[in-house]
Every structure is written in structure tokens, then in C-alpha cells.
């Protein structure tokens, strides 16, 4: 699902809201998650999962074109851990 499909589905499920209002709600939702992660925080959505960041250590990588060794600095990367209910939905025998 892409962002526009999410907005369309939410608008269909909430006909009392205008499409641009739904779009603003989605924007605020994702902006808040991104801001919390950028500040080193964590976002937990019960029944869905938790967003956090993890540290990646600096390492030596390889330039795929030349094979030359390249220093890759350490960085923080986003991480998602699905909740128990989400894992159960994904593993339903059908």
C-alpha cells in the first residue's frame, strides 16, 4: 500500500471527513513518528508494533564499481518491531 491508497481508504471509511483533512491527519501522524525517532525516542502502537532507532557501527565497505575499500561512518537507522497481535495476523494458517 502506498500513501495515496492509505488516504483513499481512510477517506472511504470516514465519509464525514474531507479528503484534504484525512491527508493532513496522515501527514501529522507520520511527521510525529519521524520527529520522535529523530529525537532518539520510541513510538509504540499497541497491537501493531514499535518504531525505534538502532545504532550502526562504522565499518569498511566496498565501492561496487571499483572494489575499493570505503569507510562507512556509524549512523542511526530506523527499526520496526511488530507487536504480538501483528505477528499473529501474519502467521494465520489459511
TrEMBL record:
The keyword Transcription regulation applies. One of its GO terms (cellular component) is chromosome. It comes from the Bacteria. GO terms for biological process: DNA recombination; regulation of DNA-templated transcription; regulation of translation. Keywords: DNA recombination, DNA-binding, Transcription, Transcription regulation, Translation regulation. InterPro entries: Hist_DNA-bd, Histone-like_DNA-bd_CS, IHF-like_DNA-bd_dom_sf, IHF_beta. One of its GO terms (molecular function) is DNA binding. PANTHER family: DNA-BINDING PROTEIN HU, INTEGRATION HOST FACTOR SUBUNIT BETA. Belongs to the bacterial histone-like protein family. This is Integration host factor subunit beta. It comes from Novosphingobium umbonatum.
